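Hi V.,

You were right to ask for the full record rather than a summary. Here it is.
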Amino acid sequence: MSEADWRDVVRGLKASIDPDRRRLVKSIVREVAGDALPVRLARKRLLLMTVDALKGRPALVAVDGNDVVVVVGLEDLIDLVMEPPPTLGEVMERARQGGVPRDRRQGR
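Predicted structure:
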């Protein structure tokens, strides 16, 4: 899944009635972000993690075993929370264009 596609998939799950959508969102974020880094290692890579987050690739930090923190860009978070899910027409148009979604940050 590309770094841009994951946001549209998560936004689409907001409107879904799938009872398993929480697990699906976790799975998508984990797939895009990769393995969670332990806090000690994350501290060493914080600059790189934040730059990647601003480019649309979230990062995970493991805290106390099973607890995980997500480092995500503010614009991505706002898009995920505030933007409505893509319409069927938008999804079909992106599929026709090779699956490359438009960059939501352009024109802002």
